[in-house]
Each structure stands twice: as C-alpha cells, then as structure tokens.
Amino acid sequence: MLLLTVIFTQTGCWDRKEVEDLAIVLAIAIEPGSGNNIKITVQNVNPASAGKGSVVGSGSGMQTGTKSYRNRSIEGKTMFDAIRELSRQSPQQLFFAHNQLIIFSEDLAQKRGVSDIIDFLERNPQIRRNTWVLVGRGEMATLLDEPGRLQTTPSQRIFDIINQRDFSSKYAIKRLGDFLEMLESKDKQAYTAVVEYTPNLAVPREHEEHGMEHGMEQGQPPEPHDNIELRGTAVFREDKMVGWLNPEESRGLLWVRGEVKGGIIDIPSPDEKNKPISLEILSSKTKLEPQINEGQLQININVKTETNIAETTSTMNIARPEKIKELEKLVGKAVQAEIQAALDKTMQEYTTDVLGFAEAIHRKFPSEWKSLGKNWSSTFPTVEVTITVDAKIRRIGLVSDPLKPRL
C-alpha cells in the first residue's frame, strides 16, 4: 500500500511544465516568404525583462532595462514546419495557449489565401477559438515592434484597442472560431479588421522637459513612436481577401449585420449647415426581410437606433420637439448613407456577400435556396435593396439652449 501511494504521488504532475521553460506566445503574424515558403513572426514574453526597467533609445549608454517582449521570425514550407524550425532554435518550448492575436499579412491574404494556414490553426489544440484574427498592412516584424514604448507589448496594445471597439464601431473584427465558420460555410463570406502602423515623429514638449520620467537620460530625445491603428475591414471571397472597407463603409456593414454597439454620428445643423452636431449611438437593432416578387429577390434592411446629443456647435434650440424631429431625420439619412456605401462596395465592386443576405434568404426560403445558392455569386449583385432607418433621440443633455456668444 505504501509503495502504491508513493507511485501515484510521484506521477501526479508528470506533464507539468515550469513557466521559465516556456516561451509564452502573445501574437502570431504570417506573411509570404521566399519562393513558396511562408514567414511567421512570433511575439512572446521575454522573461529576462521581469523586474527591470524600460529600454529607450538605441545609442550607447541609453539602455536602462530589457524589452518586455521578444520577436522571432523564420520561414518554412508550412506553418508547422516553420514553428518546428523556430522551436529547434529556441531553448524554450513555444506555448500558444495564451496567444491573443493571429495576423495575416495583406499580401498573403490577397495572393495566397489563408486556407493552408487555417488548417494548422484549426488542428492545434493550444490555439484558442476566441483568439482575434486580423489582416495586417506592411511588414509583420515592424507591425509587432514598437520602439520607445516598452512598458507594454505591441500585441497587448492591439488587444487593448480591440477592447475599445464599441466606442467607434468603425471596423468589424472576428474571433478565430467565427472566422473559421465563415470560411467553411456555403452561406457566408469572411471578414475581419485591418491593423496597420504609421510612423509618428512628433516629440511632445513634456517628454523633453520630463525625460527622466519616461526612462530617458536628461536632455536625450525620445525615440519616435509608431501609431498602431485598426482602420477598416478586410473582406474575403472564399479564402482570399478581395478588398477592404474604409471606417465609414465598415460601420455600414455593422449596421446591416446589427452589430453597431456605439460610436458617434456627426450631422449638420438644420439651421446652420456649417455647424456640426455630434450624437452618441446608444443602441441599434437590424432586421433583414427577404422577399421574392415575380422571381426578383429583394432585401428590406430595417434599422432602429437610439442616440443622445453629445455636443452641438449650433445656436439652434435643440429642446424644441420639431427640431428634434429634424435631427432624427438627419441621423437616419447619415445611417442610410453609411449602409449604402457598404452595399456599393460589397455588392458591386467586390461581389462578396459579407452582409448576411444569403443566410437570411436561406432561412426564409429554404426550398428556393437550393437553386439560388448554386449561382449566388452572380445573383447577389442583382438583389434589390431598400433601407429604412428609424432613429430616435432620447436625451439632449443638461443644456437645452446652447451658449450664444456675447456680441
């Protein structure tokens, strides 16, 4: 009995791995390599940075600590081949269970497609289905590197931006599980957000005056920061990216799909066209109503949204009921314009149904869909669409009569 007890207690944690033996992956970026190879860039936590300061600057004597992350790039014939080659060069085992982001380069998504990569991601048990999927512009190694801001990792910055998405609703982003479902479905086409960086060479004055607070020696200029932005939405046909929607068109897509959670709508004042009024989106609800009239497919897009007046530069008295009605009509027109912009891009230019029309028609007309679905790519651009927007203003704020300057 004593021998059995010893055996079981000794084998209870046989598969346990120490944290210091793992390279905890935070982001994976994939782009074309040389020839038919693919190139992956993996960002992982740098254990050497624990408890140390930040690195600012690249000159001699400017380093005061260690980066909190480490980027490593390598090529391979397949994802699995590249990752195994990367593991061969690392003393630590790559650990993907905490990965937050999967980024396909725009070049890869457009020319090669993502199906080969998706196969590995779908089979790997460590890759979680709630991982965010993005399309990246530019060099992936540069996108995942951010000189001058080392208190956090670039992947965490992107993750934090994603968590603020409902404040603008200017891009549509999907998690891996949803992205896989769209790629594999006959009724859906895939889409997700576009991430890019832009160099920012401006140096704020307070950084010059308080350089020591930012990890710099007194009088040394800070390194320029890169602005990481999520701008618009990449749309796919099958497994290849066919184009992208700008932020306004992206919100049009979100209106159609009933996924607008917040954001700002700017409209001109009815009394002073050059004086904008900003309204905060509180909620929205969309209903797609398919119809078949004499063989012609029709989709009625019915949107209901509630807003608050957040700011006005107009001197118009917004407390008057008739003025509220005018503003509600203008909000409705603004929403309708965003939807129409998304329809024009997806139906006429890209001819890819990321709008959910096929799903709606299939649900309502399952028998007719058997024949419609066979030629949907050619039928989709011919669908007649009507847009109805019911916009309501719930609150106008604490001030009903705007401040009028003294003359």
Query: How confident is the prediction overall: mean pLDDT?
Result: 85
- How far the N terminus sits from the C terminus, by CA atoms, comes to 98 Å
Q: With helices defined by DSSP (H or I, 4 residues minimum), what is the helix count?
A: 13
How much of the polypeptide forms β-strand, as a percent range? Answer: 25-35%
- Coarse structural class: alpha/beta
Poorly predicted regions are: 53-64, 205-221
Helix content: 25-40%
Radius of gyration: 26 Å
Q: How many separate domains?
A: 2
Give the strand tally. 14
The helix/strand series, from N terminus to C terminus, equals HEEEHEEHHEHHEHEHEEHEEEHHHHE
Tell me about the largest β-sheet: 10 strands, mixed
Shape: globular
Domain Spore germination protein N-terminal: 15-196
Keywords: Germination, Lipoprotein, Membrane, Palmitate, Signal
Main location: membrane
Membrane topology: Lipid-anchor
